[in-house]
Amino acid sequence: MMDLRYLLLIILALEILCVANGDNLVFQVERRKTTLSGIKHHDHHRRGRFLSSVDFNLGGNGLPTRTGLYFTKLGLGSPKKDYYVQVDTGSDILWVNCVECSRCPTKSQIGMDLTLYDPKGSHTSELISCDHEFCSSTYDGPIPGCKAETPCPYSITYGDGSATTGYYVRDYLTFDRINGNLHTAPQNSSIIFGCGAVQSGTLGASSEEALDGIIGFGQENSSVLSQLAASRKVKKIFSHCLDNIRGGGIFAIGELVEPKVRTTPLVPNMAHYNVVLKNIEVDGDVLQLPSDIFDSGNGKGTVIDSGTTLAYLPVIVYDQLIPKIFARQPELKLARIEEQFKCFPYAGNVDGGFPVVKLHFEGSLSLTVYPHDYLFQYKVAGVRCIGWQKSVTQTKDGKDMTLLGDLVLSNKLVLYDLENMAIGWTEYNCSSSIKVKDATTGIVHTVGAHNISSASTFLIGRILSFFLLLIAMLNCFYN
Ligand SMILES: *[C@@H]1O[C@H](CO)[C@@H](O)[C@H](O)[C@H]1NC(C)=O
Ligand SMILES: *[C@@H]1O[C@H](CO)[C@@H](O)[C@H](O)[C@H]1NC(C)=O
Ligand SMILES: *[C@@H]1O[C@H](CO)[C@@H](O)[C@H](O)[C@H]1NC(C)=O
Protein backbone atom coordinates (compact mmCIF):
# COMPACT_ATOMS: atom_id res chain seq x y z
CA MET A 1 0.00 0.00 0.00
CA MET A 2 2.78 2.41 0.81
CA ASP A 3 6.48 2.66 0.43
CA LEU A 4 8.09 3.62 3.70
CA ARG A 5 11.25 4.84 2.02
CA TYR A 6 9.27 7.27 -0.10
CA LEU A 7 7.49 8.48 3.01
CA LEU A 8 10.75 9.11 4.80
CA LEU A 9 12.03 11.04 1.79
CA ILE A 10 9.02 13.34 1.93
CA ILE A 11 9.46 13.81 5.63
CA LEU A 12 13.09 14.66 5.17
CA ALA A 13 12.21 17.12 2.42
CA LEU A 14 9.60 18.77 4.61
CA GLU A 15 11.96 19.09 7.49
CA ILE A 16 14.52 20.73 5.27
CA LEU A 17 11.83 23.09 4.00
CA CYS A 18 10.83 23.99 7.52
CA VAL A 19 14.36 24.72 8.56
CA ALA A 20 14.93 26.78 5.42
CA ASN A 21 11.87 28.85 6.24
CA GLY A 22 13.30 29.55 9.66
CA ASP A 23 10.09 28.10 10.97
CA ASN A 24 11.84 26.73 14.01
CA LEU A 25 9.34 27.56 16.63
CA VAL A 26 9.66 28.93 20.04
CA PHE A 27 9.74 26.06 22.47
CA GLN A 28 9.98 23.53 19.61
CA VAL A 29 6.96 21.56 20.62
CA GLU A 30 5.96 21.27 17.04
CA ARG A 31 8.23 21.85 14.16
CA ARG A 32 5.62 23.41 11.97
CA LYS A 33 2.57 25.32 12.96
CA THR A 34 -0.40 24.36 11.01
CA THR A 35 -3.76 25.47 9.97
CA LEU A 36 -6.60 23.29 9.08
CA SER A 37 -10.01 24.12 7.90
CA GLY A 38 -13.18 22.27 7.29
CA ILE A 39 -12.62 19.01 9.08
CA LYS A 40 -16.32 19.32 9.51
CA HIS A 41 -16.99 18.67 5.82
CA HIS A 42 -14.78 15.68 5.90
CA ASP A 43 -16.40 13.97 8.78
CA HIS A 44 -18.52 11.83 6.51
CA HIS A 45 -19.07 9.37 9.27
CA ARG A 46 -20.64 11.91 11.54
CA ARG A 47 -23.29 10.35 13.73
CA GLY A 48 -25.87 12.52 15.42
CA ARG A 49 -25.35 16.12 16.44
CA PHE A 50 -25.54 15.95 20.19
CA LEU A 51 -22.85 17.63 22.21
CA SER A 52 -21.29 15.22 24.66
CA SER A 53 -19.25 15.57 27.75
CA VAL A 54 -16.35 13.14 27.77
CA ASP A 55 -14.59 11.45 30.67
CA PHE A 56 -10.95 10.40 30.19
CA ASN A 57 -9.59 7.83 32.64
CA LEU A 58 -6.34 9.21 33.97
CA GLY A 59 -3.31 7.42 35.32
CA GLY A 60 0.24 8.35 36.26
CA ASN A 61 1.57 11.22 38.32
CA GLY A 62 3.60 14.33 37.68
CA LEU A 63 6.41 13.51 40.04
CA PRO A 64 9.77 13.84 38.32
CA THR A 65 11.08 10.88 40.23
CA ARG A 66 8.11 8.61 39.51
CA THR A 67 6.41 8.25 36.13
CA GLY A 68 6.60 12.03 35.58
CA LEU A 69 3.62 11.99 33.27
CA TYR A 70 -0.14 11.56 33.13
CA PHE A 71 -1.79 9.26 30.63
CA THR A 72 -5.20 8.09 29.52
CA LYS A 73 -6.60 5.03 27.77
CA LEU A 74 -8.28 5.43 24.36
CA GLY A 75 -9.98 3.02 22.00
CA LEU A 76 -9.01 3.11 18.31
CA GLY A 77 -10.16 1.15 15.26
CA SER A 78 -12.71 -1.57 14.65
CA PRO A 79 -12.63 -3.87 16.38
CA LYS A 80 -11.50 -1.40 19.02
CA LYS A 81 -8.14 -1.83 20.70
CA ASP A 82 -6.93 0.12 23.74
CA TYR A 83 -3.99 2.49 23.70
CA TYR A 84 -2.31 4.31 26.58
CA VAL A 85 -1.36 7.83 25.58
CA GLN A 86 0.26 10.68 27.45
CA VAL A 87 -2.03 13.68 27.96
CA ASP A 88 -0.33 16.86 26.74
CA THR A 89 -1.82 20.35 26.49
CA GLY A 90 1.36 21.61 24.77
CA SER A 91 0.91 19.82 21.42
CA ASP A 92 -1.82 19.41 18.84
CA ILE A 93 -2.22 15.93 17.47
CA LEU A 94 -2.96 12.42 18.63
CA TRP A 95 -0.49 9.81 17.43
CA VAL A 96 0.13 6.19 18.37
CA ASN A 97 2.93 3.77 17.56
CA CYS A 98 2.17 1.71 14.48
CA VAL A 99 3.19 -1.71 13.23
CA GLU A 100 6.25 -1.65 10.96
CA CYS A 101 7.61 1.16 13.10
CA SER A 102 11.33 1.22 13.61
CA ARG A 103 12.52 1.85 17.15
CA CYS A 104 9.02 1.90 18.60
CA PRO A 105 8.67 0.71 22.16
CA THR A 106 6.84 -2.59 22.56
CA LYS A 107 6.81 -2.73 26.30
CA SER A 108 6.56 -0.07 28.96
CA GLN A 109 8.22 -0.14 32.29
CA ILE A 110 5.42 2.02 33.64
CA GLY A 111 3.48 -1.24 33.75
CA MET A 112 1.10 -1.07 30.80
CA ASP A 113 0.87 -3.52 27.91
CA LEU A 114 1.66 -1.57 24.76
CA THR A 115 -0.22 -2.09 21.49
CA LEU A 116 0.92 -1.16 18.00
CA TYR A 117 -1.84 0.22 15.80
CA ASP A 118 -2.21 -1.84 12.65
CA PRO A 119 -4.10 -0.08 9.82
CA LYS A 120 -4.68 -3.47 8.18
CA GLY A 121 -6.08 -4.86 11.41
CA SER A 122 -8.92 -2.32 11.54
CA HIS A 123 -11.61 -2.48 8.86
CA THR A 124 -12.42 1.22 9.29
CA SER A 125 -8.84 2.47 8.87
CA GLU A 126 -8.17 4.83 5.96
CA LEU A 127 -4.93 6.37 4.81
CA ILE A 128 -4.92 10.19 4.58
CA SER A 129 -3.13 10.99 1.36
CA CYS A 130 -1.02 14.09 0.80
CA ASP A 131 -3.66 15.65 -1.44
CA HIS A 132 -6.31 15.43 1.30
CA GLU A 133 -7.50 18.80 2.59
CA PHE A 134 -6.42 17.91 6.13
CA CYS A 135 -2.90 17.46 4.83
CA SER A 136 -2.66 20.66 2.82
CA SER A 137 -4.09 22.72 5.67
CA THR A 138 -1.62 21.09 8.04
CA TYR A 139 1.21 22.23 5.81
CA ASP A 140 -0.29 25.62 4.93
CA GLY A 141 -0.70 24.61 1.29
CA PRO A 142 -0.20 21.76 -1.13
CA ILE A 143 2.77 19.48 -0.59
CA PRO A 144 5.29 19.77 -3.43
CA GLY A 145 5.49 16.61 -5.50
CA CYS A 146 2.40 15.12 -3.90
CA LYS A 147 0.88 12.20 -5.78
CA ALA A 148 -2.44 10.65 -4.85
CA GLU A 149 -2.03 7.60 -2.60
CA THR A 150 1.15 9.02 -1.09
CA PRO A 151 0.58 9.26 2.64
CA CYS A 152 0.40 12.61 4.42
CA PRO A 153 3.41 12.76 6.74
CA TYR A 154 3.66 14.28 10.19
CA SER A 155 6.71 15.08 12.28
CA ILE A 156 6.82 16.54 15.77
CA THR A 157 9.76 17.43 17.96
CA TYR A 158 8.81 17.93 21.59
CA GLY A 159 10.44 20.27 24.07
CA ASP A 160 12.75 17.58 25.45
CA GLY A 161 14.14 16.85 21.97
CA SER A 162 12.20 13.60 21.54
CA ALA A 163 10.66 13.22 18.13
CA THR A 164 7.97 11.24 16.35
CA THR A 165 7.53 10.89 12.60
CA GLY A 166 4.90 9.02 10.65
CA TYR A 167 1.81 9.48 8.51
CA TYR A 168 -1.82 10.36 9.09
CA VAL A 169 -4.66 7.85 9.10
CA ARG A 170 -8.36 8.15 9.83
CA ASP A 171 -10.18 5.70 12.07
CA TYR A 172 -12.73 5.50 14.86
CA LEU A 173 -11.89 6.87 18.28
CA THR A 174 -13.99 5.39 21.09
CA PHE A 175 -14.33 7.52 24.20
CA ASP A 176 -16.48 7.58 27.35
CA ARG A 177 -19.47 9.86 26.97
CA ILE A 178 -20.74 11.11 30.32
CA ASN A 179 -24.40 10.12 30.55
CA GLY A 180 -25.09 10.00 34.28
CA ASN A 181 -23.58 10.65 37.67
CA LEU A 182 -20.24 8.80 37.71
CA HIS A 183 -21.58 6.98 34.66
CA THR A 184 -20.43 6.83 31.06
CA ALA A 185 -21.29 5.00 27.85
CA PRO A 186 -18.98 4.41 24.88
CA GLN A 187 -19.34 6.75 21.93
CA ASN A 188 -17.24 6.96 18.80
CA SER A 189 -16.17 9.48 16.23
CA SER A 190 -14.05 9.22 13.13
CA ILE A 191 -10.86 11.22 13.62
CA ILE A 192 -7.52 11.76 11.91
CA PHE A 193 -4.42 10.87 13.90
CA GLY A 194 -0.77 10.04 13.39
CA CYS A 195 0.52 6.53 12.82
CA GLY A 196 4.04 6.58 14.28
CA ALA A 197 6.79 5.17 12.06
CA VAL A 198 10.00 6.45 13.68
CA GLN A 199 10.43 7.50 17.31
CA SER A 200 13.39 8.90 19.17
CA GLY A 201 14.40 10.13 22.61
CA THR A 202 12.00 9.37 25.43
CA LEU A 203 9.48 8.11 22.84
CA GLY A 204 11.83 5.43 21.53
CA ALA A 205 12.18 1.73 22.16
CA SER A 206 14.70 2.03 24.96
CA SER A 207 12.66 4.52 26.94
CA GLU A 208 11.63 3.59 30.45
CA GLU A 209 8.48 5.66 30.37
CA ALA A 210 7.28 4.72 26.89
CA LEU A 211 3.55 4.60 26.18
CA ASP A 212 1.55 3.99 23.01
CA GLY A 213 1.53 7.65 22.02
CA ILE A 214 0.51 11.18 22.95
CA ILE A 215 -2.83 12.96 22.80
CA GLY A 216 -2.32 16.69 22.26
CA PHE A 217 -5.00 18.94 23.73
CA GLY A 218 -3.71 22.06 21.96
CA GLN A 219 -5.85 24.68 20.23
CA GLU A 220 -5.01 23.82 16.62
CA ASN A 221 -7.67 22.37 14.34
CA SER A 222 -5.72 19.12 14.14
CA SER A 223 -6.24 18.22 17.82
CA VAL A 224 -8.77 15.57 18.83
CA LEU A 225 -10.66 18.25 20.78
CA SER A 226 -10.91 20.50 17.68
CA GLN A 227 -11.93 17.57 15.48
CA LEU A 228 -14.66 16.48 17.90
CA ALA A 229 -15.83 20.10 18.16
CA ALA A 230 -15.80 20.50 14.35
CA SER A 231 -18.07 17.47 14.01
CA ARG A 232 -20.33 18.95 16.70
CA LYS A 233 -19.60 16.21 19.21
CA VAL A 234 -18.28 18.46 21.99
CA LYS A 235 -17.77 22.08 23.01
CA LYS A 236 -14.21 23.27 23.24
CA ILE A 237 -14.06 23.29 27.02
CA PHE A 238 -12.11 20.84 29.14
CA SER A 239 -10.67 20.58 32.61
CA HIS A 240 -8.09 18.53 34.40
CA CYS A 241 -7.19 17.83 37.98
CA LEU A 242 -3.83 16.06 38.14
CA ASP A 243 -3.33 14.22 41.40
CA ASN A 244 0.35 13.90 42.28
CA ILE A 245 -0.44 12.47 45.70
CA ARG A 246 -2.46 9.37 44.81
CA GLY A 247 -1.84 9.47 41.03
CA GLY A 248 -4.41 9.80 38.24
CA GLY A 249 -7.11 12.43 38.69
CA ILE A 250 -9.88 13.96 36.60
CA PHE A 251 -9.82 14.86 32.90
CA ALA A 252 -13.09 15.76 31.22
CA ILE A 253 -14.40 17.60 28.18
CA GLY A 254 -17.53 19.61 28.96
CA GLU A 255 -18.90 22.76 30.56
CA LEU A 256 -17.70 22.98 34.16
CA VAL A 257 -20.40 23.77 36.70
CA GLU A 258 -18.57 22.88 39.90
CA PRO A 259 -16.16 23.95 41.25
CA LYS A 260 -16.44 27.59 40.25
CA VAL A 261 -13.20 28.73 38.67
CA ARG A 262 -11.84 32.26 38.23
CA THR A 263 -10.13 32.74 34.85
CA THR A 264 -7.50 34.82 33.07
CA PRO A 265 -7.61 35.55 29.30
CA LEU A 266 -5.62 33.34 26.95
CA VAL A 267 -3.21 35.33 24.79
CA PRO A 268 -4.75 35.06 21.30
CA ASN A 269 -2.98 33.57 18.27
CA MET A 270 -0.38 31.68 20.22
CA ALA A 271 0.78 28.17 19.49
CA HIS A 272 0.29 27.17 23.12
CA TYR A 273 -1.85 28.07 26.10
CA ASN A 274 -0.20 31.38 26.97
CA VAL A 275 -1.33 33.60 29.81
CA VAL A 276 -0.10 36.92 31.19
CA LEU A 277 1.90 36.48 34.38
CA LYS A 278 2.21 39.86 36.16
CA ASN A 279 4.42 39.17 39.15
CA ILE A 280 5.58 36.65 41.72
CA GLU A 281 5.16 36.98 45.44
CA VAL A 282 7.20 35.02 48.00
CA ASP A 283 6.38 35.24 51.69
CA GLY A 284 4.39 38.40 51.04
CA ASP A 285 7.20 40.15 49.11
CA VAL A 286 6.81 40.82 45.40
CA LEU A 287 9.99 40.03 43.45
CA GLN A 288 11.55 43.14 41.88
CA LEU A 289 11.76 42.20 38.23
CA PRO A 290 12.17 44.07 34.93
CA SER A 291 8.66 45.08 33.87
CA ASP A 292 8.81 43.20 30.55
CA ILE A 293 10.19 39.96 31.94
CA PHE A 294 6.92 38.05 31.38
CA ASP A 295 5.80 40.27 28.48
CA SER A 296 3.18 38.57 26.39
CA GLY A 297 3.65 40.18 22.99
CA ASN A 298 5.55 38.53 20.14
CA GLY A 299 5.78 34.95 21.24
CA LYS A 300 6.57 35.83 24.81
CA GLY A 301 4.35 35.10 27.76
CA THR A 302 3.87 32.24 30.11
CA VAL A 303 3.00 28.80 28.79
CA ILE A 304 0.71 26.41 30.67
CA ASP A 305 1.64 22.84 29.69
CA SER A 306 0.49 19.63 31.35
CA GLY A 307 2.99 17.64 29.27
CA THR A 308 5.90 19.30 31.11
CA THR A 309 6.74 17.99 34.56
CA LEU A 310 8.50 20.91 36.24
CA ALA A 311 8.29 24.73 36.06
CA TYR A 312 10.84 26.81 34.14
CA LEU A 313 11.53 30.46 34.97
CA PRO A 314 13.69 33.12 33.32
CA VAL A 315 17.16 33.15 34.88
CA ILE A 316 16.62 36.62 36.43
CA VAL A 317 13.47 35.37 38.13
CA TYR A 318 15.02 32.10 39.27
CA ASP A 319 18.03 33.90 40.76
CA GLN A 320 15.75 36.06 42.91
CA LEU A 321 13.26 33.38 43.79
CA ILE A 322 15.58 30.68 45.14
CA PRO A 323 17.35 32.83 47.80
CA LYS A 324 13.94 34.04 49.00
CA ILE A 325 12.70 30.48 49.30
CA PHE A 326 15.71 29.52 51.41
CA ALA A 327 15.83 32.76 53.41
CA ARG A 328 14.44 31.07 56.50
CA GLN A 329 16.86 28.14 56.19
CA PRO A 330 20.35 29.65 55.83
CA GLU A 331 22.06 26.53 57.18
CA LEU A 332 20.71 24.19 54.46
CA LYS A 333 23.23 22.89 51.93
CA LEU A 334 22.20 21.85 48.46
CA ALA A 335 23.65 18.85 46.62
CA ARG A 336 23.17 18.02 42.97
CA ILE A 337 21.52 14.68 42.23
CA GLU A 338 21.35 13.10 38.78
CA GLU A 339 22.89 16.27 37.32
CA GLN A 340 19.55 18.00 37.10
CA PHE A 341 18.13 18.31 40.61
CA LYS A 342 19.32 20.44 43.51
CA CYS A 343 18.43 18.59 46.69
CA PHE A 344 18.89 18.73 50.42
CA PRO A 345 18.10 16.53 53.39
CA TYR A 346 14.97 17.71 55.19
CA ALA A 347 13.00 15.53 57.54
CA GLY A 348 10.39 18.03 58.75
CA ASN A 349 7.19 19.30 57.17
CA VAL A 350 8.30 21.56 54.31
CA ASP A 351 5.08 23.57 54.50
CA GLY A 352 6.19 24.77 57.93
CA GLY A 353 9.75 25.56 56.90
CA PHE A 354 9.36 27.28 53.53
CA PRO A 355 7.19 30.08 52.09
CA VAL A 356 4.35 29.71 49.59
CA VAL A 357 5.01 31.19 46.15
CA LYS A 358 2.13 33.11 44.58
CA LEU A 359 1.99 33.78 40.87
CA HIS A 360 -0.28 36.70 39.97
CA PHE A 361 -1.93 36.76 36.56
CA GLU A 362 -3.96 39.25 34.56
CA GLY A 363 -7.55 39.39 35.77
CA SER A 364 -6.73 39.07 39.50
CA LEU A 365 -6.19 35.35 39.18
CA SER A 366 -3.42 33.96 41.34
CA LEU A 367 -1.84 30.55 41.58
CA THR A 368 -0.47 29.45 44.92
CA VAL A 369 2.37 26.96 44.81
CA TYR A 370 2.99 25.25 48.13
CA PRO A 371 6.37 24.06 49.37
CA HIS A 372 5.16 20.43 49.20
CA ASP A 373 4.62 20.96 45.46
CA TYR A 374 7.77 22.86 44.52
CA LEU A 375 10.04 20.89 46.89
CA PHE A 376 9.30 17.39 45.69
CA GLN A 377 10.27 14.34 47.65
CA TYR A 378 13.20 12.56 46.14
CA LYS A 379 12.16 8.88 46.20
CA VAL A 380 13.07 8.48 49.83
CA ALA A 381 11.70 10.27 52.84
CA GLY A 382 13.95 12.96 54.19
CA VAL A 383 15.31 14.29 50.89
CA ARG A 384 13.71 17.18 49.01
CA CYS A 385 14.61 18.65 45.63
CA ILE A 386 13.78 22.03 44.12
CA GLY A 387 11.21 21.78 41.35
CA TRP A 388 11.75 25.30 39.98
CA GLN A 389 14.20 25.26 37.09
CA LYS A 390 16.04 27.85 35.04
CA SER A 391 14.45 28.31 31.66
CA VAL A 392 16.14 26.25 28.96
CA THR A 393 14.13 27.57 26.07
CA GLN A 394 14.29 30.93 24.46
CA THR A 395 11.64 32.77 22.52
CA LYS A 396 12.29 34.10 19.02
CA ASP A 397 13.64 37.37 20.37
CA GLY A 398 16.05 35.66 22.72
CA LYS A 399 14.03 35.95 25.93
CA ASP A 400 13.85 33.17 28.46
CA MET A 401 10.50 31.45 28.32
CA THR A 402 8.34 30.88 31.37
CA LEU A 403 6.82 27.41 31.28
CA LEU A 404 4.52 26.12 33.99
CA GLY A 405 4.11 22.34 34.08
CA ASP A 406 2.61 19.74 36.41
CA LEU A 407 4.70 21.04 39.32
CA VAL A 408 2.35 24.02 39.67
CA LEU A 409 -0.74 22.56 37.95
CA SER A 410 -1.11 19.42 40.07
CA ASN A 411 -3.73 19.25 42.80
CA LYS A 412 -5.68 22.06 41.15
CA LEU A 413 -8.71 21.97 38.93
CA VAL A 414 -7.55 23.66 35.72
CA LEU A 415 -10.19 24.83 33.23
CA TYR A 416 -9.48 25.50 29.53
CA ASP A 417 -12.44 27.39 28.12
CA LEU A 418 -11.60 27.84 24.44
CA GLU A 419 -15.16 28.99 23.66
CA ASN A 420 -14.35 32.10 25.73
CA MET A 421 -10.55 32.07 25.25
CA ALA A 422 -9.86 31.87 28.96
CA ILE A 423 -8.05 29.57 31.32
CA GLY A 424 -8.38 29.31 35.08
CA TRP A 425 -7.86 27.16 38.14
CA THR A 426 -8.72 26.64 41.74
CA GLU A 427 -7.33 24.60 44.61
CA TYR A 428 -9.02 21.22 44.45
CA ASN A 429 -8.97 17.70 45.78
CA CYS A 430 -8.22 15.69 42.63
CA SER A 431 -9.46 12.47 44.23
CA SER A 432 -12.95 13.91 44.56
CA SER A 433 -15.30 14.79 41.70
CA ILE A 434 -16.45 17.72 39.54
CA LYS A 435 -19.78 18.59 37.91
CA VAL A 436 -20.19 19.20 34.18
CA LYS A 437 -23.28 20.24 32.25
CA ASP A 438 -24.50 18.26 29.26
CA ALA A 439 -24.72 20.90 26.54
CA THR A 440 -27.66 19.18 24.84
CA THR A 441 -29.93 18.36 27.76
CA GLY A 442 -28.64 20.90 30.31
CA ILE A 443 -28.45 18.10 32.87
CA VAL A 444 -25.55 18.35 35.33
CA HIS A 445 -23.52 15.19 35.90
CA THR A 446 -20.85 14.27 38.42
CA VAL A 447 -17.50 13.13 37.01
CA GLY A 448 -15.22 11.27 39.35
CA ALA A 449 -11.48 10.75 39.64
CA HIS A 450 -9.73 7.75 38.12
CA ASN A 451 -6.39 6.17 38.58
CA ILE A 452 -5.28 3.69 35.96
CA SER A 453 -2.85 1.70 38.01
CA SER A 454 0.74 1.80 36.91
CA ALA A 455 2.26 -0.14 39.74
CA SER A 456 5.13 -2.31 38.63
CA THR A 457 8.11 -4.04 40.08
CA PHE A 458 10.21 -1.83 37.86
CA LEU A 459 9.36 1.28 39.88
CA ILE A 460 10.27 -0.43 43.09
CA GLY A 461 13.53 -1.56 41.56
CA ARG A 462 14.27 1.93 40.39
CA ILE A 463 13.49 3.51 43.74
CA LEU A 464 15.86 1.10 45.43
CA SER A 465 18.70 1.76 43.05
CA PHE A 466 18.22 5.51 43.33
CA PHE A 467 18.16 5.15 47.06
CA LEU A 468 21.59 3.58 46.95
CA LEU A 469 22.85 6.23 44.57
CA LEU A 470 21.48 8.95 46.78
CA ILE A 471 23.14 7.63 49.89
CA ALA A 472 26.40 7.53 47.99
CA MET A 473 25.96 11.11 46.81
CA LEU A 474 24.97 12.49 50.17
CA ASN A 475 27.92 10.71 51.75
CA CYS A 476 30.17 12.32 49.18
CA PHE A 477 28.70 15.68 49.93
CA TYR A 478 28.90 15.56 53.67
CA ASN A 479 32.38 14.09 53.91
C1 LIG B 1 -10.07 25.97 12.09
O1 LIG B 1 -11.37 25.54 11.80
C2 LIG B 1 -12.32 26.57 11.86
C3 LIG B 1 -13.71 25.93 11.75
O2 LIG B 1 -13.73 24.92 10.80
C4 LIG B 1 -12.04 27.60 10.78
O3 LIG B 1 -12.99 28.63 10.81
C5 LIG B 1 -10.66 28.16 11.04
O4 LIG B 1 -10.29 29.05 10.01
C6 LIG B 1 -9.63 27.06 11.13
N1 LIG B 1 -8.41 27.62 11.62
C7 LIG B 1 -7.27 27.46 11.00
C8 LIG B 1 -6.11 28.13 11.64
O5 LIG B 1 -7.18 26.81 9.99
C1 LIG C 1 -19.74 3.49 16.64
O1 LIG C 1 -20.91 3.65 17.40
C2 LIG C 1 -22.06 3.16 16.75
C3 LIG C 1 -23.26 3.57 17.57
O2 LIG C 1 -23.07 3.30 18.93
C4 LIG C 1 -21.93 1.65 16.61
O3 LIG C 1 -23.07 1.12 15.95
C5 LIG C 1 -20.70 1.35 15.76
O4 LIG C 1 -20.48 -0.04 15.69
C6 LIG C 1 -19.48 2.00 16.37
N1 LIG C 1 -18.37 1.88 15.44
C7 LIG C 1 -17.16 1.55 15.81
C8 LIG C 1 -16.17 1.49 14.72
O5 LIG C 1 -16.86 1.34 16.97
C1 LIG D 1 -10.34 14.05 48.80
O1 LIG D 1 -11.46 13.37 48.31
C2 LIG D 1 -11.47 11.99 48.63
C3 LIG D 1 -12.66 11.37 47.89
O2 LIG D 1 -13.81 12.10 48.10
C4 LIG D 1 -11.53 11.81 50.14
O3 LIG D 1 -11.51 10.44 50.46
C5 LIG D 1 -10.33 12.50 50.75
O4 LIG D 1 -10.42 12.44 52.16
C6 LIG D 1 -10.27 13.94 50.33
N1 LIG D 1 -9.01 14.51 50.79
C7 LIG D 1 -8.97 15.65 51.45
C8 LIG D 1 -7.62 16.11 51.86
O5 LIG D 1 -9.97 16.30 51.72
Description:
This protein has 479 residues and is of the alpha+beta class. The protein has 2 domains: 54-254, Acid Proteases (Cathepsin D, subunit A, domain 1), CATH 2.40.70.10; 260-427, Acid Proteases (Cathepsin D, subunit A, domain 1, Beta Barrel). Helices cover 16% and strands 35% of the residues. The chain contains 9 helices and 31 strands. The protein has helices at residues 4-20, 39-42, 133-138, 224-230, 315-325, 350-353, 371-374, 406-409, 457-478, and strands at residues 54-55, 58-61, 69-76, 81-88, 94-102, 126-127, 153-157, 163-180, 183-200, 213-216, 237-242, 249-253, 255-258, 262-265, 273-275, 277-282, 285-286, 302-304, 311-313, 335-337, 341-345, 357-361, 365-369, 375-377, 383-386, 388-390, 402-404, 412-417, 422-427, 433-437, 444-448. Strands 3-4-10-5-9-8 form a 6-stranded mixed β-barrel. Strand 22 (357-361) and strand 23 form a beta hairpin. Residues 1-49 and 455-479 have low confidence and may be disordered. The site of one 2-acetamido-2-deoxy-beta-D-glucopyranose (NAG) has 3 residues, from loops. The site of one 2-acetamido-2-deoxy-beta-D-glucopyranose has 8 residues, from loops.
